[in-house]
Design brief:
77% of the residues lie in helices and 0% in strands. It has six helices and no strands. Keywords: Membrane, Transmembrane, Transmembrane helix.
Length: 119
């Protein structure tokens, strides 16, 4: 089955984002909430998850599972976005208004993924 190009775009975004966890791990370690155990492992696992879920979007047999995984992952990532708002170091000097906009963006990404259940 051939899916619309924008599903493949979504897949590429998640594969790219997951790959960045291995290229720039310090960036992700900085935004990892300090109360979570084993931050390096969590950065590694979240990178693997993003790559696997992105690839999973491309195949009919795994598409819906990947969509569910992406939505769940984005819900969990809200913890990181909240932490960036409450920690000056994790916020990395990003303006608060940008950090606040990332919250509705997460929900927009969840909706974007959810939309593909109908395909």
């Amino acid at each position: 089955m051939i899916y619309p190009w924008h599903l493949y775009l979504m897949a590429a975004i998640y594969v790219f984002a997951g790959t960045m966890h291995f290229i720039k791990p310090k960036m992700y370690l900085r935004i990892m909430p300090r109360y979570l155990p084993k931050p390096k492992l969590l950065v590694f696992l979240s990178g693997i998850a993003e790559i696997m879920l992105g690839v999973g979007l491309c195949f009919p047999s795994t598409k819906n599972l990947a969509i569910s995984g992406i939505i769940a992952m984005l819900v969990v990532f809200l913890i990181v976005h909240y932490y960036m708002l409450t920690s000056k170091k994790a916020g990395a000097g990003i303006p608060v208004w940008v950090l606040l906009l990332r919250i509705p963006l997460q929900f927009g990404l969840m909706y974007w993924a959810f939309w593909y259940f109908q395909l």
